[in-house]
Amino acid sequence: MAVAILVFLGGCASGGLKAYKGKPFNDSGYQGGPQKIPGRVQCAYYDLGEEGVAYHDNDATNHGSGGLNPPDGTYLNEFRMNEGVDTSYTKFHDAIDNNPYDLVVPPKNQLYVGWTEPGEWFKMTVAVERSGIYTVDLLYTSNRGGAISLDLNGEPMTPPINLISTRNDADPLAWRQWHHWNLMKNIAEVELVKGVCVLTVHVLAEGNMNLACLDFRRKTESAARK
Question: pLDDT per residue over 129-143, tens digit each?
Fold first, then answer.
């Protein structure tokens, strides 16, 4: 199945950051500041900030951390459990996230944003280290397909991006339809300018997606903006 390449020409203008009250995520496990581009941008490291600032979720309960994953004093089970965004992590026991229906095998203990619903969004502060054209890959699952889009500093970065469904009716376990991982390559091709930006992921359609990380790889240098 061919994937359309979506091109956005824009930059990390500081004006889009002035009114933003969110802060780059940090905790005992991650203290790296704004996530770096080129590199892997972790969705679960969405910014620190309240509902309506750093994220919007349709309810205030984290259904993963502290819910599906009961509080037990461990970092992964209690990761951001008092925030509204639903987070969980990949598990390699009982063939949960290492099952025969994976299209790719995800990293063990990979954090992700799940229980997604249309209208939800989350923001991540990123630091672009070098201007240029970047391709974007997404590690995800999708029970029935769906669509997302990306914004940069509050301005549209891509049109809707349709995600390939990872549903496989051959799997005898219904609950595992949410655990068929895939790496969708080149979901977008974007021009970024060196600097600090706020990247927003919007859930547009269907939901029921687990969004793990976005890999930004530099393709070419921008001729106009070095």
Answer: 999 999 999 999 999
Structural domain spans, the chain? 7-220
Within 13 A of 46's CA, how many CA atoms are on the CB side?
A: 31
CATH number assigned to the domain with residue range 7-220, chosen from the 4 options 3.30.1330.60, 2.60.40.10, 2.60.120.260, 3.90.45.10: 2.60.120.260
pTM: 0.92
Phi, psi of 115, deg, nearest 5:
55, 35
166-183: pLDDT as tens digits = 999 999 999 999 999 999
Residue pLDDT, tens place only, 139-165: 999 999 999 999 999 999 999 999 999
